[in-house]
Write a structure and sequence with these properties.
Number of strands: 14
Radius of gyration: 18 Å
Strand content: 15-25%
Structural class: alpha/beta
Largest sheet: 8 strands, mixed
Length: about 260
């Protein structure tokens, strides 16, 4: 099993997968390797940036909350946030908050004055609209104006909403931090382990690639953890290997070619 983060890992700075990466992953998939995407994105957003799933077997979404078979869109598992818990975030929004995203499989309901043009993002300032339309809440994210405010909110949420896992997020390509919340006990690695058990794959047969804070756990615990050369320093410290090339130069593919000895 080959597990790939998206932003800063498989995706380049233009938020695209190179044709070279697509062709190589398609070849590995045809050879029998199980290709898995593990990301904080929702399902619809993954489909959008990857332009389909022809070279991927499974996607783990929302930092481990859900998993889907890309062949038939079958749900392997799903751990939604309860509506009564989600409604607690109505009190979080203030002048220091840039936006709150309430997400399901297909839509990001963005509570904000800042609009975005991606078709799967629905911006509004109506909480009733969000909670009447968001079907199964997969995760909720909060963006603040400063990283200091993120830390303050993190401590508050840990105390006020103990039924959720509260995580500070940061990608390798930006200094900005934000908060992601999911159902208690969900992580990328736990989702990977559950999928591997479902497929009868041993942990030592899993190679995982990542670059950001939410990738550390899976890089530490999967059989082989690989950090991209552009990864945050703390991510590199927890990996077995570091790629010679970054996400803009097919770092994942260059590593796999050498490690698997498959051209």
């Amino acid at each position: 099993m080959i597990v790939l983060d998206l932003d800063g890992t498989l995706l380049n700075s233009e938020k695209k997968v190179s044709e070279r990466s697509k062709n190589y992953l398609r070849k590995l998939k045809d050879m029998g390797y199980i290709i898995v995407i593990a990301t904080g994105r929702i399902y619809e957003s993954i489909d959008y940036v990857m332009n389909g799933f022809e070279y991927v077997n499974y996607v783990i979404t929302d930092n481990g909350a859900s998993c889907y078979n890309t062949c038939d869109d079958h749900t392997i598992f799903n751990n939604p946030i309860e509506l009564k818990t989600a409604k607690k975030f109505k009190k979080i929004y203030n002048n220091n908050c840039m936006f709150i995203n309430v997400c399901d499989k297909h839509t990001i309901y963005k509570y904000s004055d800042i609009d975005e043009d991606d078709y799967f993002i629905d911006t509004t300032k109506d909480w009733d609209y969000i909670f009447n339309n968001c079907k199964e809440i997969s995760h909720i994210s909060v963006s603040m104006k400063t990283n200091e405010q993120v830390m303050e909110l993190y401590n508050k949420l840990k105390e006020d909403i103990p039924e959720l896992d509260i995580n500070i997020m940061q990608d390798s390509f930006a200094d900005r931090k934000w908060i992601e919340t999911i159902k208690k006990g969900c992580t990328k690695y736990k989702a990977i382990a559950e999928l591997a058990n479902y497929l009868n794959i041993n942990n030592d047969e899993i190679i995982a690639f990542g670059d950001g804070l939410n990738d550390i756990d899976m890089l530490k615990k999967c059989g082989i953890g690989v950090a991209l050369s552009n990864a945050l320093p703390v991510v590199k410290e927890n990996a077995n290997f570091i790629t010679a090339y970054n996400h803009n130069h097919d770092g994942v593919i260059e590593f796999l070619k050498e490690y698997l000895n498959v051209e």
